[in-house]
Design a protein that fits this description.
Structural class: alpha/beta
CATH architecture: Alpha-Beta Barrel
CATH class: Alpha Beta
Number of domains: 1
Strand order of the largest sheet: 8-7-6-5-4-3-10-9
Order of helices and strands: EEEHHEHEHEHEHEHEHHHEH
Strand content: 5-15%
Number of strands: 10
Distance between the termini: 34 Å
Helix content: 40-55%
Shape: globular
Radius of gyration: 19 Å
Largest sheet: 8 strands, parallel
Amino acid sequence: MPPVEIPVEKWPGKVREVTIGGNGRKSVTVGGESALPFLSFEGQIPNRPRIAIEVVDMVPEDWADNLVQAWGDAMKSPAAWAKKAAEYGADLICLSLDSAHPDGPNTGPKEAVESVTSVLEAVDLPLIVLGPGVADKDNEVLTAVADAASGQRIVLGFCEEKNYRTIVAAALAGGHLVIAKTPIEINLAKQLNILVSDMGLPPDRILMDPTTGALGYGLEYVYSVMERLRLAALQGDSMTQIPIINIAGKEAWRQKEAKAAQGVPDFWGDAARRGILWEEITASELLLAGSDILVMRHPEAVQKVKATIDSLMGS
């Protein structure tokens, strides 16, 4: 019997490489794939997916008990939290400026700059900074942060259709990158990448977040959109050849199934274990869909997903 020839797909395109950090800080490069996720026999996978651990600029009031226990007193200081995240193996730090939300403490640019500066001084890992998710307030705090961190090549998020001009201008002035965030739709993702590029920001300074869905809450739909984005990139569509970032931890842990300890069926099992699994499975599925950076929360879930990446990369 003649040997069976295994079909191998060859793609004309590849994802751009994007480097975060540098200029005296550690740097991380993502992207560069010329094959579907982890199919290294069909093309090159030059850079492994990376994990950013989320740090918040205030003590969160709605986090599950086992998340709070995992971080302990470090949650009282963004700098201390970032140091502990580095000890747990973070490739990047993702600082969320939750205190700036108008419905919360409503802190301003001064406090945002202080938090970012403290994290930059505490660790030399590349930094992602997320605003509170309200366009006007994002513009206010992220512009100040971009100026204060000029030359550090941090990532500013989120850059959306309603505020991309302000965020991109701040990134251009400070030498930073942006996260282009869109609802779950491939054409909207591509269009925002075009708008951002048209302002003069090179595509190798853009990450895209096509919106992240957690296990049981839209993950399948997100998976299909990410898959289509990656297929378009490999087929040569320039404006989809952008590395993908997913805010996996936040989405997983805000679901009832991840954090509810009371009033749920017994077969759901132990709440502490369940929450970690919810984040781990969510993150692992996003990896298989093509995620280049996962923003995660629980240290144990981080370690498990790192082991998954090692296995899939053949390490």
